[in-house]
Amino acid sequence: MDATGCYIIPGLIDCHVHLTSSGNPRELNGGRGQPLPQRAWKAAGYAKATLEAGITTVRDLGAAERLNVEMASAIANGLIPGPRMFAAGLGVTMTGGHGHGFVATEADGPDGVRRAVREQLRAGATAIKLFASGGVMTPGVDPRSPSFTEDELRAGVEEAHKAFRVVAAHAQATDGIKNALRAGVDSVEHGIWLDDEAIQLMLDQGTYLVATLTAPFQIQNNGLEAGIPQFVVDKGTRVLEDHEASFRAAVAAGVNIAMGTDQGTPVNRPGENAQELVRMVQLGLSPATALMASTAWAADLLKVSNEVGRVEPGLAADLVILDRDPLASIEALTDQSAIRTVIQAGAVVRSSLPRTEE
Ligand SMILES: [Zn+2]
User: Fold this and answer.
1) Residue 40 has pLDDT above 80, yes or no
2) C-alpha of residue 264 to centroid of ligand 1, in Å
3) What separation in Å is there between the alpha carbon of 306 and the centre of ligand 1?
4) Which of 66, 110, 230, 333 has the highest CB neighbour number within 10 Å of its CB?
């Protein structure tokens, strides 16, 4: 194809999605009331929309009934189009902790956590998620409260690392973040209340921050009128300012950053993932750095840098071709008409570029 005058970047990597969820506030919990086949067919559409928007790899951090694991294998087997997908199955949370009855299974004590992680691995999980603090989307759970103890987290991390899986910790509260860091997780998700000690631990250990700035932003921006429940709006609004301050502090300190949206949270829709880059740039990353966090560094976190994340001989050709320079305007990545072509593993997913003669 003739890409004269265009810009070629690696396919984007979103390190925190819930690809089986629409982002429709009235369908929270992945539409759990609906029959599983209906949810699966809908989710196939979300996977397609995500891929067509230039997101060629995702890490899914929790789905009811482990629908994410089944979708990852359907995509890998070529049954449905979608991004390369790492899937955590269910996250693991303490009894009554964030995500319970929703995107997480409950476990207590180091042995209980160990077993719950093994159950995800048995079910085919290719990523592991542990909940180290409360969060916004579960009623009655305070995002400022830590959840698993350091010992519980360490047992989960050990099991995951034994199986060569990357571990994500949902961690918003300061103490929860530090417990997760001392336990050796690979990425801190959200990281709403980072203090100097947490930032130092992240620097010392090379831990990644996957901030998911889009999640609380969309909750605050859309509010009750969009059908978001009151308790979610209250908590999402309360965390926003501190979340952004923590992100700025982490960037200033030089913490590893990888892009993640928490797609599937209210009004955080599949295919709109690139809005996270715009938000990261607004909060202090250069456009080039935001792109690195969404490609090469994300691949480093997911330990797939020998496969994807860079435009390099020997890697899979996951490519996005734009007719606007994303370094001049990062918003180009959110403009579906500026994205002229998406290629996954060398195969054209969609293209509006003229074909040249063979
Ligand atoms: Zn999430």
Assistant:
1) yes
2) 8
3) 26
4) 333
pTM of the model: 0.97
**356: CA distance to ligand 1 center in Å?**
42
Residue 298 confidence (pLDDT) above 60: yes
Residue 30 has pLDDT above 60, yes or no: no
CA of 103 to the centre of ligand 1 (A): 9
Looking at residue 90, what is its pLDDT? 97
- What's the gap in Å between 16 CA and the centre of ligand 1? 6
Output the CA 220–ligand 1 centroid distance in Å.
17
Measured in angstroms, how far is the CA atom of residue 252 from the centroid of ligand 1?
25
Residue 237: the pLDDT is 86
Question: How many structural domains are present in the chain?
Answer: 1
> What CATH number is given to the structural domain containing 158?
3.20.20.140
The number of residues making up the chain comes to 358
Pairing of strands 7-10, 319-322: antiparallel
Minimal CA–CA distance to 193: which of 224, 213, 171?
Answer: 171
CA of 137 from ligand 1 middle (Å) equals: 9
Q: Has residue 328 been placed in a domain?
A: no
Q: What separation in Å is there between the alpha carbon of 170 and the centre of ligand 1?
A: 8
pLDDT band at 33 (very low <50, low <70, confident <90, very high): confident
Residue 309 lies in a domain: yes
* Sheet containing strand 128-131, strands side by side: 104-106, 91-93, 128-131, 167-171, 187-190, 208-210, 256-257
Q: Please report which confidence band the pLDDT of residue 31 belongs to, taking 50, 70 and 90 as the band edges.
A: low
**Residue 352 maps to a domain:** no
- Please name every residue paired with 130 in a beta bridge, in sequence order, or none if there are none: 92, 169
pLDDT of residue 28: 67
Q: Which of 318, 297, 136 is nearest to 231 (CA)?
A: 136
Which is more confident, 163 or 31? 163
pLDDT score recorded for residue 161: 98
Q: Residue 6: inside a domain, yes or no? A: no
Q: Is the dihedral of CA 66, 185, 247, 131 positive or negative?
A: positive
